[in-house]
Specification:
Elements (H helix, E strand, L loop, with lengths): L5 E5 H15 L3 E5 L1 H5 L3 H11 L4 E4 L2 H9 L6 E3 L8 H6 L2 E5 L2 H14 L3 E6 L14 H9 L4 E7 L11 H22 L4 E5 L1 H6 L7 E2 L24 E13 L4 E2 L5 E2 L4 E6 L39 E4 L2 E6 L7 E6 L10 E8 L2 E3 L1 H8 L3 H6 L7 E4 L1
Parallel strand pairs: 1-19, 2-3, 2-9, 3-4, 4-5, 5-6, 6-7, 7-8, 8-9
Antiparallel strand pairs: 1-10, 10-13, 10-17, 11-12, 13-16, 14-15, 15-16, 17-18
Length: 396
């Protein structure tokens, strides 16, 4: 194992979470979002596993290169590109059989011309902006755009969709319901011109977990299939299984004296004689520098209170697990290495020992939601930041 830091991906857990999404979807088709390297879990192997097991009917991507990689690897499932496609990117996207999102007249005309030039009929889904204010047609423009699509023989309208920005927030229920009502009207307007549209979809993970899905007939789970709720403050309503387990190894153990400092900037001073372990992971691997110990940082929320130093001092920063015990990060996370405080007693920790950054060790667990809380971000970003140099070990 020449690379000590690894990201282990439990495909059985991923498929169990997809099964939960399908159950909640109530017979609707499932599009699994695999964009952004499958949220850091490995684009091609995750997509191939979904295809082989039949866990989803569609896959969702964000850039044409993702689609090219999937096609080259033998993925034949339909691929929906959520984002607009620039004109110079259209030939490759159409050649790969990627379903395009279109949301205005220019996008429709460009896709129509490129598909016609290639002698192809390109599949498109009409994106409708019901409140995200990012991309997509204004609801009032849907009927006009549907007429343009109907007059485009090189395009096939296979679907219509919208996106829900606060479906994961309890206080966002009223806004989400209003969005879905607006979307229903937009679908009706499009179908008055085009006739019945095969796929109507709006539900991301938040909506799958907590909203009435209405007349839609496909859902688009993303973060939930990777084992996380879309918001760290979400009260779990359905159990999800951890998919990723991030580990590294101890490379050095040394004793330091009271008053000595550790790491760049000398930001941590040992309050007493103690032992320090160096771990072969850093921000170059995606382990955020925000996990550094730091003066004045907010006290970590539960369950981070278990990250106290071995002498009982409350920890302000990240922690890691070794053999079922929690050890706090001390000093600044470096590009390739991070230091832990093992405490004043001669440690049982040895060079080569496994270190868990995310996942379980014995009865202890560091969830992706804990790392997100420390970083002041969302669970999505934690795994998306895991660098390419960290090998993905897939099992199941």
């Amino acid at each position: 194992m020449p690379t000590p830091t690894r990201f282990q991906v439990d495909l059985d857990a991923l498929h169990a979470n997809l099964a939960t999404a399908r159950e909640l979807a109530g017979g609707r088709r499932v599009l699994a979002a695999v964009k952004a390297n499958a949220y850091g879990h490995g684009l091609v192997p995750v997509a191939l596993s979904i295809q082989e097991r039949g866990s989803a009917e569609w896959l969702g991507i964000a850039v044409t290169e993702e689609g090219r990689q999937l096609r080259a690897a033998g993925v034949t499932l339909p691929l929906l590109k959520f984002t607009p496609t620039l004109p110079d990117d259209l030939p490759e996207a159409i050649d790969a059989g990627i379903t395009l999102s279109v949301g205005d007249e220019d996008a429709i005309l460009a896709a129509r011309a490129t598909a016609a030039e290639a002698g192809r009929v390109a599949d498109v889904h009409l994106a409708v902006d019901t409140g995200m204010r990012r991309v997509g047609a204004e609801p009032s423009d849907v009927e006009r755009l549907a007429a343009l699509l109907a007059a485009s023989p090189s395009l096939r309208v296979g679907g219509i969709f919208t996106h829900l920005p606060i479906s994961d927030v309890v206080t966002g229920a009223e806004f989400t319901r209003a969005q879905l009502a607006t979307f229903d009207d937009a679908v009706a307007a499009a179908e008055s011109v085009l006739g019945p549209i095969e796929l109507v979809h709006a539900a991301n993970s938040g909506a799958v977990l907590g909203h009435d899905l209405g007349r839609t007939n496909m859902v688009r789970p993303g973060i939930m299939i990777y084992g996380s709720y879309p918001d760290v403050a979400t009260v779990p309503t359905r159990p999800l299984r951890d998919v990723g387990r991030w580990t590294s190894r101890v490379t050095f153990v040394k004793r330091i004296c009271a008053g000595e400092t550790v790491g760049y900037g000398r930001t941590w001073t040992a309050p007493a004689d103690t032992w320090i372990a160096t771990v072969a992971v850093g921000y170059g691997d995606g382990y955020s520098r925000l996990n550094s110990s730091r003066a004045g940082a907010p006290a970590p929320p539960e369950p981070l209170s278990t990250a106290a130093s071995p002498d009982g001092t409350p920890q302000r920063g990240g922690r890691m697990l070794i053999d079922g015990r929690s050890y706090p990060v001390v000093g600044r996370v470096c590009m390739d290495q991070t230091m832990l405080d093992l405490g004043p007693e001669p440690p049982s920790v040895r060079v080569g020992d496994e270190v868990v950054l995310m996942g379980t060790s014995g009865s202890e667990r560091i969830g992706v939601e804990e790392l997100a809380a420390l970083m002041g971000t969302i669970t999505y970003e934690v795994t998306c930041l895991i660098a390419d140099r960290v090998p993905r070990d897939l099992r199941g």
